[in-house]
Design a protein that fits this description.
The complex is a heterodimer of chains A (108) and B (113). By secondary structure, chain A is mainly β. Helices cover 0% and strands 55% of the residues of chain A. In chain A, a hairpin with a 3-residue loop joins strand 9 and strand 10. The chains are: A mainly beta (108), B mainly beta (113).
Chain lengths: 108, 113
C-alpha cells in the first residue's frame, strides 16, 4: 500500500488542454515536494509546499497543499508537449516518501 | 556543474554475481540515499546516509549493502543479486535543511538474470 496515492496513474491529453493531478495521503506531512521525471533521467524538483492551504505558481503550473497538509494537487494550464513526463509527489516528515507518480502525455 | 553521477548506467548480470553501483556527488552534501523505482510502486528508499560513516536502512534494505567512507561517495553493493532486484536504481543527495531538494542521478538500470 502506497503511503502517497497519486491519481490518475496515466493521463493522455491534447496540447492546450488543462489538467489536474492529485496526491493524497492519510498522513500529515511537514512539507510536500513535486518532482518531474523524464525518460532516462532522475526526478527534478519543481516545488516545495510547506504551509497548509499554500498555493504556488510556476508559470503554467499551480501547486496547492491541502489545509490539513495531507494532500496536494498540481494543475497545468494549456498543457504543452514539453510537459510530458512522470510527475511525482513526495511527502516529508522525518524521512521522505514518494508516490508512484502520474505519467502525463501531451499530444501535439 | 553540480551533479550526482552513477555508474554504470546499464548492467545485465546473472544471479549471485556480486556487483557494485557507484554514486558520487560534487555538492559537498551530507545526506545521500539510494532508491529503487518499480512500475506502480514509485521510488522506494533502500538505504540512506546522514554523513560519513553513518548509514541507515530505508524501506527495502534486504539484499543490499552500502558504505559511506567519504562524503562524496555512496556505493550500493549487491553481494548476491537475485532476479527480484531487477529494477531502476537512483542515487540522490541533499544539502542541510528540511526543505532542500534531493538531487538525483540519471539512474542505473539493473537486470539480474
Amino acid at each position: 500500500t502506497q503511503l502517497l496515492e497519486q491519481s490518475p496513474q496515466f493521463l493522455s491529453i491534447q496540447e492546450g488542454e488543462n489538467l489536474t493531478v492529485y496526491c493524497n495521503s492519510s498522513s500529515v506531512f511537514s512539507s510536500l515536494q513535486w518532482y518531474r521525471q523524464e525518460p532516462g533521467e532522475g526526478p527534478v524538483l519543481l516545488v516545495t509546499v510547506v504551509t497548509g492551504g499554500e498555493v504556488k505558481k510556476l508559470k503554467r503550473l499551480t501547486f496547492q497543499f491541502g489545509d490539513a497538509r495531507k494532500d496536494s494537487s498540481l494543475h497545468i494550464t494549456a498543457a504543452q508537449p514539453g510537459d510530458t513526463g512522470l510527475y511525482l509527489c513526495a511527502g516529508r516528515n522525518n524521512d521522505m516518501r514518494f508516490g508512484a507518480g502520474t505519467r502525463l502525455t501531451v499530444k501535439p | 556543474e553540480a551533479q550526482v553521477t552513477q555508474n554504470p548506467r546499464y548492467l545485465i548480470t546473472v544471479t549471485g554475481k556480486k556487483l557494485t553501483v557507484t554514486c558520487s556527488q560534487n555538492m559537498n552534501h551530507e545526506y545521500m540515499s539510494w532508491y529503487r523505482q518499480d512500475p506502480g510502486l514509485g521510488l522506494r528508499q533502500i538505504y540512506y546516509s546522514m554523513n560519513v560513516e553513518v548509514t541507515d536502512k530505508g524501506d527495502v534494505p534486504e539484499g543490499y549493502k552500502v558504505s559511506r567512507k567519504e562524503k562524496r561517495n555512496f556505493p550500493l553493493i549487491l553481494e548476491s543479486p537475485s532476479p527480484n532486484q531487477t529494477s531502476l536504481y537512483f542515487c540522490a543527495s541533499k544539502g542541510q535543511g528540511a526543505f532542500q531538494p534531493q538531487h538525483f542521478g540519471d539512474g542505473t538500470r539493473l537486470s539480474i538474470l
